[in-house]
Amino acid sequence: MKIALDSFFLTYDLKRVIIYAMSKKRFVFISAVLAITLGPCWVQAQEQRRVEQENRESLRTTEQRVIYEKSKRYVPAAPMDTDYFQELLTKKTATNSDVCKVLTVLLGVEDVYSDISSQLGLLLKAGIISGVEAAQFDPEQPLSKGSAAVMFYRALGMKGGMWLTVFGETERYAIRELIHEGIMTQGSVDEIVSGKELILILTEAANYAATYGHSMTKTSTVERPMEYEKVEPGASPETAEGNDILFFDYGGRASFRYDDYKNYDNDTPAVDSVDYISTLDLRLWVKAVLRPPTDSDYQNEHSVYLRFKDEYAYQQALGVAEGREHDGPHLDYGYIILDFMPLGIEAGRRYFDVGQGISYGNVGDGVEITLAFPGHALSTFVSRNLENEENIDMSVPGYAEGSERYFMGSEYAFNGIEGHSFYGYFVIQRDESTEKPDDLFQDFKYDSEHIGVGAQGKLLPSLRYWAEIIKESGQSRVFGTIDKKNIDAWGGILGASYELDLYSHPVLSLQYAYGSGDPGRVVVTDTEFGNSFGKDKNFLYFGYLETGYAVSPLLSNLHMYNAGIYCKPLEAWKVFRHLALNANYYQFYKDRSSGGIYDLEADARSRSVGGEVDIELFWQVLSDLGLRAQYGYFVTGDAYPPATDDNESYFSLSSVITF
User: Fold this and answer.
1) pTM, to two decimals
2) Quick one: pLDDT band at residue 275, thresholds 50, 70, 90?
3) Of 460, 572, 456, the residue nearest 505 (C-alpha)
4) Cβ atoms 19, 532 nearer than 8 A
């Protein structure tokens, strides 16, 4: 953000003076200028990073995640019909008769109800099949995911979420409940279940019953089963030969988040620029999937996905007027997936990323082409950032009105060694943003290239690892001139996690991340107060890395050490089995003590930035209701001068309702 002066030429001269001051004795008076002119922008950018984290959490495929696995595994009380299950395993399409057989196994009465007529009688009598379903039930029809979900939901005696309570045992919300409990994988009601998938559903359903003590008593004295009159199937999409099948699905989520800040500027006597922010976020989505007929020889399916966003934000700033912001309604995501296995094409507005998502990971408009073979995958993409996305360089005139950056790259992954993935990629970023108004004496373009190599996988069943090293090159502009200098920067990440075989299944993690710094930079993202001489050694990226809640710095001129623990402390109580605790400790150091970091207040000549403790509680109360609380407390180090060395805290409460 440019300092407002009466004369344009005075602005230019002031830049020259500042450059001279930086070359002789940096930070003499620049800290005060930046605190006044750039402080509010930095607050806004820091909050935007938290919003990005929340938006990308469910979309980023390469993010390191803890996968909780139940320790109890299902052991049948009596020998099963292994020949039948071997045959079922090979079936491309399971039928309604298969689910009847499998449900009697789950109920422990497969030795009594051995034929389809008696099995149907049992399920009708038990209410597992009822109403319209019973009248239209055809044993020879392909089994849909919705039908299977309802029957397993009833057989397990499950209690559903809010929408199941309101709308009853519908296929749509029964699937949600089984996905929530880890019994069924993601899918829509019309998807056809394969034999292998049906076996997996049975296994997880039995694990659920064994883990949470649901009583399914085996009948010792069985009355004569009810006779079942077969209903001849009519024409249905699943059996229409020679025609592809078009399915639709829809949904949405509404979330509310409250963020509270204390000592945002690390200066207790000063009035914080932000007190709290409350946000209401609504997302609505629709999906269309074109699948081949069940009897076809090919498995390719194509889809279209649209998601719309409408967000309201209320910001209370201490000592100043309140602020309201409305973002939307607009298209949040909109893309098409074409599956021509082994060739895949995804085009539209979607999430693009490479590697660990540090070099590049963002929502943009573009196209990605992937070739996937056993053990190998090659993807190439071209994308553009969203038009309304603020420029990462907040010194560009008109930065808040949007930016124009283009990304193109490619990634190759080798997965030929079981449990491991090795990859390499490159990303080219070109800055075509315009200045509004144009600055004749300063060029703001930042063109970069990232080359990365990495690996991730399991060294032991409970020991995971991930590692990546990144080289950044390109050209940035020198502050106060139209000159450009080469970028020579490095970044990287190394981490591991280990799951202990104990109550609550604690997972311990250690991680180190690094981004090189430039001794001549005060601001790591901007041209103004940015690179002032020589090569630009500052590591600047266009993805995301979690660096804590309170200070939340970019990985620029920074060493970050992180230790964490994740667990489910109350998993023995059924109502709290989806309550997770995540605690992390961060320690930050500058790479170059004379350079700045993302937090403009840390402008003293010291490498010690400080430490932070973060605690998060997330409770998936119901399949369609989640609650989250986050708290972060940052203790400043010697990089903060006495005027701004007060500790900082952050607290957030949020809730999400899906439908």
Assistant:
1) 0.81
2) confident
3) 572
4) yes
